[in-house]
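Re: [ENG-882] Designed sequences occasionally contain unexpected residues at chain ends

Forwarding the minimal case from QA. Structure tokens:
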């Protein structure tokens, strides 16, 4: 299978890395980018071919659309006339529905809408996807294998994808902010910054591993750390007092609503 990339920013290059690590030969991959110097830089780093959008579209069995949402229409207008018959177009652009994407491509084009996240860069991503109207089971499986090269993949209904964007798509930013805040708090409490950073990052990694490996509800694991009247209880009381849960709810709903605005063309 030949794979083409329209856009090789952070997410596009992350998926590219996973595809190559999964055994796809570099000569089977072509990349393009609005910034030609970026396409050449990525191509040189990974041994793939840098070219233009029409050439990518003509050659690829699977076309990954990894440009910003506002640039998708222009990229697909350029790709559509030369798109290879039977090709699958996988879009990772937030907010753009399969119906919108299909309307920008030749009739009957197989479109898969996906939402990966940036831990794909280290092979630990979480992606969700849904098929458009013309996608066969085999084509959907091809898209799953593509994203499976950079982490876990979930099939979801399309109406859930804006919420997926709000939870896992943008979720790494929330986690990084929490770690940043925890590091700063450790410094204020008297720790050297490098030590506070190692402790915070290690705690995050270990806690995530516990969640994944035990299968326990996070509330159960939280309770196991929290002794009545103890230090953890005191800290959690302060966090709840500052509205931590409400803040996350508000943030996730704002994210979801922004994705809906993008879909509706409200810039």
């Amino acid at each position: 299978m030949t794979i083409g990339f329209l856009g090789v920013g952070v997410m596009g290059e992350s998926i590219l890395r996973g595809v190559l690590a999964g055994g796809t030969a570099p000569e089977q991959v072509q990349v393009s980018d609005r910034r030609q110097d970026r396409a050449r830089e990525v191509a040189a780093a990974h041994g793939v071919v840098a070219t233009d959008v029409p050439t990518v579209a003509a050659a690829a069995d699977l076309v990954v659309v990894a440009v910003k949402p506002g640039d998708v229409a222009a990229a697909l207008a350029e790709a559509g006339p030369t798109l290879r018959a039977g090709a699958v177009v996988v879009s990772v652009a937030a907010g753009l529905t399969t119906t919108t994407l299909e309307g920008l491509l030749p009739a009957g084009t197989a479109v898969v809408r996906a939402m990966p996240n940036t831990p794909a860069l280290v092979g630990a991503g979480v992606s969700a996807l849904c098929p458009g109207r013309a996608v066969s089971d085999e084509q959907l499986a091809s898209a799953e294998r593509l994203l499976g090269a950079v982490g876990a993949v979930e099939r979801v209904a399309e109406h859930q994808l804006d919420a997926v964007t709000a939870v896992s798509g943008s979720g790494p930013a929330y986690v990084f902010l929490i770690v940043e805040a925890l590091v700063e708090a450790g410094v204020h409490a008297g720790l050297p910054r490098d030590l506070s950073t190692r402790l915070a990052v290690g705690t995050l990694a270990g806690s995530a591993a516990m969640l994944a490996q035990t299968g326990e509800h996070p509330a159960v694991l939280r309770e196991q750390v929290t002794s009545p009247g103890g230090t953890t209880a005191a800290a959690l009381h302060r966090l709840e007092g500052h509205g931590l849960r409400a803040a996350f709810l508000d943030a996730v709903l704002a994210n979801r609503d922004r994705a809906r605005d993008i879909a509706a063309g409200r810039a």
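QA comment: On inspection the terminal residues look reasonable. Residues 171-263 form a domain with the ProC C-terminal domain-like fold fold (CATH 1.10.3730.10). Proposing we downgrade this to a documentation issue.
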